[in-house]
Amino acid sequence: MHWAAAGAAIAAITLLLLFLANRRLGISTGFEDICSLVLQVPYLRRPAVLSGRRWRLPLLAGLVIGGWLSAVTGGGWAPTWDLGLFDQVIGLGPSGKLAWMFVGGAFIGFGTRLGGGCTSGHGIFGLSNLEMPSLVTTVCFMAGGIVTTQLIYRVLF
Amino acid sequence: MTALYLVLGTLFGFVLSRSGAADYNFIQRMFLFESFQLYGIIGTAVVITAAGLWVLKRYGKTVTGRALEIELKSFHRGNVIGGVLFGVGWSMAGMCPGPIMVNIGEGKVYALAALAGALTGAGVFSALYRKLQGALRLPPLAVGTGEG
Questions:
Q1: Which helix (H) or strand (E) holds A48?
Q2: Is A65 in contact with B6 (Cβ distance < 8 A)?
Q3: Three-state secondary-structure class, residue A58
Q4: Which end of chain B is more exposed for a tag (fewer CB within 10 A), N or C?
Q5: What is the count of structural domains for chain B?
Q6: Minimal Cα distance from B94: which residue of A?
Q7: Least CB-CB distance to A32: which of B32, B113, B126?
Q8: Which residues of B71-109 are buried (b: 16+ CB within 10 A; e: fewer)?
Q9: Residue A63 · residue B102 · CB < 8 Å
Q10: C-alpha separations of B140 from B5, B58, B135 in Å
Q11: pLDDT score at A137
Q12: Could you say which of A21, A111, A131 has the minimum Cβ distance to residue B86?
């Protein structure tokens, strides 16, 4: 899909979510929503989390369905361990890959919640709405990603 | 309303999947400055959403006539530290939060480990909030770091 078409589609989804349902696009709080189903800590008993579950959990489920639909209609769905560049350059087996992904995921979960948002909430909605916290966070996560990938693929491996 | 969120999520997931935004190689090539694709997607999305938000805010109402509510995020030290940590994770996993879910749908087995890690990270953060709050001067618990 051409980047301009994908960008326009994401903008349309963001605007529809606001216009139809009065919701501000954001995915990473969904992790808190899922945690709140099992974890009883004060931070997860906030009204923002409890009321957000009603819309964010279906949105997250939709993302899974969208990925599945894309696979089914584009060559067929099958479980896979393939990881492109990672396989060619780093080349860990299944258990190493799971450990790597768990650590990466932990950085994502902790970092997005500490930063108050991710690529969607800060990078797309926040920047579009000219919000300073979102600009700062977006610059920081792009910088973190650039330095880490450069380190992994140009220095370490 | 649940159906609406499911449909919008599905569309979002489909676009992320087909555009490369949920693809490990595209993410690495973005951070290596070898591919314009992701910069193009985010840039286009921001420009069009900004224009749409300007119009919607002038109109001031949703489709049902309710006043438009856009909750602003608070500004705090966590923006910098959390942003950098998230960037490290985005690079390692080659997925940001939306694409973790999309990759699971696509059948990428390792994405389940990324989700388990993300839930663990978010859970640890939530459990430690009061301790982090003092050290990093985060907003009051009722406010939180920002929904998104």
A1: helix A47-72
A2: yes
A3: helix
A4: N
A5: 1
A6: A104
A7: B126
A8: eebebbebbbbbbbbbbbbbbbbbbbbbbbbbbbbbbbb
A9: yes
A10: 30, 31, 13
A11: 98
A12: A111
Residue range A70-87, pLDDT digits in tens? 999 998 999 999 999 999
**Residue B51 falls inside a structural domain:** no
Residues of chain A in contact with residue B142, where contact means CB-CB under 8 angstroms, are 46-47
N-to-C CA span, chain A:
30
Confidence band for A47, pLDDT divided at 50, 70 and 90: confident
ipTM of model = 0.96
pLDDT digits (tens, 9 = 90+) for A4-24: 999 999 999 999 999 999 999
Q: Report the 10 Å Cβ neighbour count for A23.
A: 24
Comparing CA positions, the residue from B26, B44, B1, B21 lying closest to residue B103 is B21
Residues B5 and A74: their CA atoms lie apart, in Å, by 24
Contact B148 A121 (CB under 8 A): yes
Which residue from A41, A133, A149 is facing B146, i.e. has the nearest CB? Answer: A133
Q: Which structural domain range is residue B6 located in?
A: 2-35+71-136
Does residue B120 fall inside a structural domain? yes
